[in-house]
Amino acid sequence: MALIPKLVEFGERSRFENLPTEVIVESKRILLDSIGCALAGLTVDKGHKALKAARAMSGASESMVIGSGDKLSMGAAAFANGELINAIDFDLLTIPPGHVTPYVLPASLAMAEGQHRSGKDLIAAIAISHEVSTRFGLAMGYYRDVTPGQKLTLPSISGFSSTIFGGTLASSLLRGLDARQTGYAMGLAGHMAPAQSMSKWGRTVPGPDNKYLMSGWMAQAELTAVQLAEAGYSGDTEILEGEHGFWRFMGSTKWNPDALMDRLYDEWKFPAVTIYKPYPHCRNTHTILDCIFNLIEVHEITPEEIDRIVTYSDSHTAKLPLYSAKTIQTPSDAQMNTAYAVSMAIHGLRPGPEWHDDESLRSKKYLAFMEKVQIEPHPDFEQLLTKEPQSRIGKVEIFARGVTFVEERKYRKGSPATPETRMSDNDLADKFRHCASRVLSPERSDQVITAIMDLETIGDVAKLAILWQGDMHDESSRNTGRSRV
């Protein structure tokens, strides 16, 4: 049997009743975090543009945009929600391959709402899409694959296009396609997947809004593949086979189908590698941000006292233009730029949409401080990563008061690597409340948190989608316009 039919069979067998407890719990945590990120994204420049585009492309009223009150076509709503979840780079990662949720969840949300599926069905869809995507990340080339004795660099081709298979599989099941149609949808999706463009993007300044992969387009492609298969289109169910399959025409450096299928029914891999973000910034800076926040709190260091800062972090991005530049021209720049994130931390801005408001992006004080930041690759990064795949060692040296304050950490907050770094349910709830604070009242935020954590009791996802619509819909609270660079 070819690989696509095997994945279809896995999806069909992975009903809620067959899911392990840890898979159910992590799926609900993923949903909570993602809705919060989308609500925050709704209040910044990228969110404004995404909503405007989605309204222009919409037809029938089928599914809701998170927080805005708009009910659009499935494709338009999925587009907007994908862009919102990823708008300020606050969304979780599943490693490998990295960003997964903004590419697979929006289509499932739109389909579950439009089809009036249950919370149990949505949990299963979240689990299936993340599990399949994680396995593709293990089977294909990963930008943190270490060659002994060599320093990591961002490869010439990298990205997250393989997530289209997990997203399409989940949406097909929610739509009620049969096994043959689902296989066709996945085959069609593979040929519709966007090119692997992350490596070019990481070397581009200023950073454009499409980022490393446009979330909204991926969601639309998944839904389109489902609709085409339902309409009678045939698809390439052997797209993963042989020397000229998906991996080859997407430019992957490797293809290991055994990793895709290994213990497929017996072991769920994604819960152990799902990482949540405490900061609205590329995950490559998070270890050094942990160090900075701790140093300035313990030693009561003020921005005015600091002469310079040296950071040591991920080798493959430390010197990339998008990460190492000392100017901010676009919102995407701010989400990747190491010196900008350091300035936000030093000046004590609460991590959240505040980092990406217009007043922050244009602040002469914050931008001037970036000149004090020196960015270096950590010399032990590859060695430790080889031994401990969850490690992301980072180090910070703050020169102030004639003294050098130093801190080094091996793991980042939000990582499941240790009980101390894992983000608890309470941590996620606090993050959600802050992300939602410009769109939802505190009472509504708590209602959404409770509903998502009890998702299996929801009979119709459409009712849940209404709950997370903003109850603070005046322009002053929702559409601030504060993040245009």
From TrEMBL:
GO terms for molecular function: lyase activity. Transmembrane segments: none annotated. Residues 7-253 form the MmgE/PrpD N-terminal domain. InterPro entries: MmgE/PrpD_sf, MmgE/PrpD_sf_1, MmgE/PrpD_sf_2, MmgE_PrpD, MmgE_PrpD_C, MmgE_PrpD_N. Gene3D superfamilies: 2-methylcitrate dehydratase PrpD. Residues 279-453 form the MmgE/PrpD C-terminal domain. Belongs to the PrpD family. This is MmgE/PrpD family protein. It comes from Microvirga tunisiensis.
